[in-house]
Amino acid sequence: MRARKVFAAVLLSALVAACSGRHGEVQTHAGGAGGTSGTLTIKGSDTMVILAQRWAEQYMRQHPGATIQVSGGGSGTGIAALINGTTDVATASRTIKDQERRTIAELRGAEVTETKAALDALAIYVHEGNPVRSLSIEQLRRIYRGQVKNWSEVGGPDRRIILYSRENNSGTYAFFKERVLDDLDFAAEAQTLPGTAAVINAVSHDPGAIGYGGIGFGSGVRTVPVSDGDGPGIAPTMENATGGTYPLARYLHLYSVGEPSGLAGEFLSWVLSPEGQALVEATGFYPLPPEADATAARVAEAP
Fold it and tell me: How far apart are CA 277 and CA 250, in angstroms?
């Protein structure tokens, strides 16, 4: 399996607002709690869409002059919208690709700015009645490649494994394919669904099912600890995700063109504040580690 790049979680410093009219007119209030007014569009990751909506709702309650529009569609869809200028911020549950960065620089005339906004432990979900207690990366690879077809081959009951996956424009799909399948193809019988919530719903109704998705969507199913070798499985907890022991931990990203300013800058700064990070945890994901402990967070990301 290819070597992983390890990144330390870094909290961005506050982004000072400046006037920007890139997407609609933006006006700056003369001080007070209102901040910068205007319209901000956020598009992308289905994994992040509920979290982004909660951020937007809370921010707009506190800043009546701001309008923030949030939509999903997948990480690839959000980055494509950033390329063609139809969104201000793209949400992505995977790292932006080098080619995407180059295209944005060529077409938009500025480099991409990446904000790591939260941590996620991409979880492996099975039906709550499934007795399998741990799976290795190698076992998951063989399952999703179609080489292991029965739960009895990995310590479970004599039951056919039913595969659920995400659609190929999903950052979760791309992350899983890179980290688990070594960029090989999924088994032809894997059923693709449009979001993690749909995957979990399917798994919760099928005793033979397995699926994967963000940790913030774990209702009605059971998460399986995952090992990266012959050792014991590691549960997708906040401690294990921030400490780097859970092998499928990842950052959730916000991407913008150029250094964010105006409403975008103020909003991204607020997302990284204690209040914004409290909403991360309330939504079921994991907040970034405190700045003093940032170097302890070792989260492997696909290139």
Answer: 16
